[in-house]
Every structure is written in C-alpha cells, then in structure tokens.
Amino acid sequence: MMTLPAKQVVRRVREAGVVGAGGAGFPTYKKLETQVQHVIANGAECEPLLQKDRQTMLQDRAAFLRGLAIVRDVTRAQTVTIAVKRKNADVVEGLRQDAQAEGFEVLVYDDVYPAGDEYILVYEITGRQIPPGGIPLAVGAVVDNVETIVNIARAVDGQPVTEKYLTICGEVRRPVTTVVPVGARIADCLEHLAGGWTTPDPVVLTGGLMMGGVARSLSDPVTKNMGGLIVLPSDHYLVRRKTQTRETYTRIGHGQCDQCSLCTELCPRYILGYPIEPHRVMRTLLMTGEARQRGSLWAQYCCECNVCSLIACPEQLDPKSICVDAKRLLREHGLGRTAAELRTLFREPHPVRKGREIPIKTLYTRLGLTPYDRPAPFQRFDWQPQSVTLPLAAHVGAPAQAIVQSGDRVRRGDVIGTVADDQLGCPIHASIDGRVTALTQQAIEITA
C-alpha cells in the first residue's frame, strides 16, 4: 500500500499539522515513529449527541481505509482493528468488505460510556492493561481517532489540515454534522450552518457533554481537536454543573460527602484495575499538609471522564473536579506513586466491570439530553467565514511560532506558524485565503 519510505511519511504527517482530532491534540507524527503490534482506529465516539466520527467514516471512507493502511505499514503492525459502538455498526457493515480485504478487524462495542477511552479499547482488543499513567505504545499499540487517520492519508498526498469535522446540535434550529475551516468562530458556525440558536441565553459546550469544556465566548475559534458544538440554555443542569466555581464545589463537598464510595465503584479506570479512588480523594477536603498530599495520590490516574460527578454521586457532588485539583497539587509538589506502590495497587480488571458500564441512554435521561437526541445529518456547505483565528498553542507540546506578519497575504494551506524540528509540535496553516489582520503571541487572525 505504502510507496513512500516510513521516515518520509512521518515527515509529511508532521508538516501537514496532523494532531489528534478527538482528544488533547497530540501531534500524530510521534505515534508513527515506532513499531507496534496493534493499530486501533477509534471510532467509538462515546460522547452523547456527537456524530462527527460516524460521518467521517461515511464521507471519507476511501481516505480512512487508506490512512489506516498507511499507519499499519509505517508502524509494521500485525493487527489493525476498527472500533465502533453498536449504534454505528451499520457504518462498519458498509466498510466490512474493503476492511477485510486489507486484513482489518472490527470491534463492535456496546453503547456505553466511556467506551472510547483508549485504555478500555486497548484492553478489549489486546487483553493488555496500559501501565498506570502510560500510553498505548507501552503495550505495543497505537490508537488514533478516525478523523486523524483520514488526515494522515491526506498528509501523505501533501494536503495540510485546514478543516474540521464538527457536529453542531442542542438548542439550534438545524442540527448538522459538517466540515468547517479550522479557526472559524463558534458564533459564525452556529448562525450560518445550524440556523442559529433557539435559546435566549446560549451556552456552548465544546468537545463533548461529559469531558468537554464550556466556551468562554461565542467568538472562540474551532480548533483541530474539537469534536462538536453543543448549545444548551444557561440554566441547563450540565451548564450549572460545569460552571460551578472551585470555592462552591469544594465547600459543598467538604460538608456533604458521606463516603458512600459509589464514585469509586462506578469509576471506569478503577474497575479496569487502576489505583484511582475518588471517594478517598474527597476525604482530603478535610485534611491539610502531608495527609492531604498522600490522600491526593488516589487521584493520580483519574481520566476526568465525569462519571463520578455526573452519574455516580447521589449527592450531586463533584469528585471529578476535586480529583483535578488533587492532581494539580501532586504536580506542584512533584509527588506520585512509587513503583513498589503500583506493584501492590495495580490490579486485574474488576470481575463485574461489564455490569458497571454506563449505558448511553442512562446519560440522556439523567443529564436532561433526551430533547436533543435528534439526527444531525451531514451537509457540506459552500461557506467561508469572513475571518478565522488560529491559536498557536492548539496542540500538545511547544506552541507554533508565527512566520507571517500583519498585512501579509496568505492562501489556504500556507504555513503560517512553525515548531522547531527538535521540539514536540507541528506547523499550523492558513485555513482560508486572506490577509493577516491580527498577530499576537497566542493566535493569528486572517480576514478574507
């Protein structure tokens, strides 16, 4: 399949600015610099309401399969698995013949949350547990989002990442899944592509309802790793929970946690065998000094999936945020589990793990999402925003350094920011034709 040398493929993937399209934005070329046994295409899309991975596989089927073959050849993987949820099994059926011709396998996972967690996928497919705090490479696996894999295929053809698959849903007139230029303003996407919002005081959740954040402003840009824009009214339960201040959730947790331990019993990482126990972290709200630091170690391997806060806790407390704060404390003091501790605490997966996974339908009911469970069909628009804002630090690693100046004319695909070869990171590219109209240490603005 692959005709270019592996090193040249890796170089092209870096130069094209390919980063993880469904998570933190890790530069993809680093995953291709090693040899592994397993390649996993993550199409599980476990966040409620999002459909962008489904549409990526439907709309860019040929590029997806070609990109997957490229990853296999570069890493010399022995097995390739496409992982989807049962709700998208029909997509895999359409791919199955071509996938089988390439020797690709398929995992159809139950409609549960958070099935898209790479720790879960790696265990289900390889039978091996990623070491605590480790990455799939530690057990001979590479996991990439399906949109990332499409971008790899395009990168080998010399096409940089300038656009993004996105589901726009919730309180909008026309839920839709589409492709937008990277850097387009959230407000422009809502207005021009989804018909505008249908609530007087909209709040936009970016990336996902469970793990995504709240947009600071409707002027925020769409980034390469953003999976969706979910519009909710300002008084929605999820908005209130996600915008609660640290002082508030700490004070309430300090006074109301009764140590029932449901947050731990339902924690996906705990039942997979990892030493993460949110109920013990909640105890640290009553502690100071060394006792608090030691108690915070039970938060070290939290993946921030929000099951504890949004599903498990009967008091509607916020163990996830308490764990995030505890991890910050650990970093500040340079603390972590010792190898001896991990040998004792890291276990085999819980024998009733499957019975504790959270059905997606439960999320819809518990989180007040049923009214928004509507189709968001794919539509490609002949639309270009008047301006885009391209953050220089929209990926893991060193931020890009601008190589353009205010007033410069650029064309879509031009490199406008670079990262030194010896640093983790990758370039950014103009996503529209236009002129550089603003340049700061944080971002480059281009106006058509």
List the helices and strands and how they pair.
Elements: H1 6-15, E1 38-43, H2 52-59, H3 61-75, E2 79-85, H4 89-102, E3 105-109, E4 112-113, H5 118-126, E5 141-145, H6 146-156, E6 163-170, E7 176-181, H7 186-194, E8 202-206, E9 213-214, E10 228-233, H8 237-242, H9 246-256, H10 262-265, H11 278-283, H12 289-296, H13 307-312, H14 319-333, H15 339-345, E11 358-359, H16 360-366, E12 387-391, E13 401-402, E14 409-410, E15 415-418, E16 428-429, E17 434-439, E18 443-447
Parallel strand pairs: 1-2, 1-5, 2-3, 6-10
Antiparallel strand pairs: 4-11, 6-7, 8-9, 8-10, 12-18, 13-15, 14-17, 15-16, 17-18
Descriptive terms for the model:
Rossmann fold; 4-stranded parallel β-sheet; 448 residues; 5-stranded mixed β-sheet; single chain; alpha+beta; 33% helix; globular; Ubiquitin-like (UB roll)
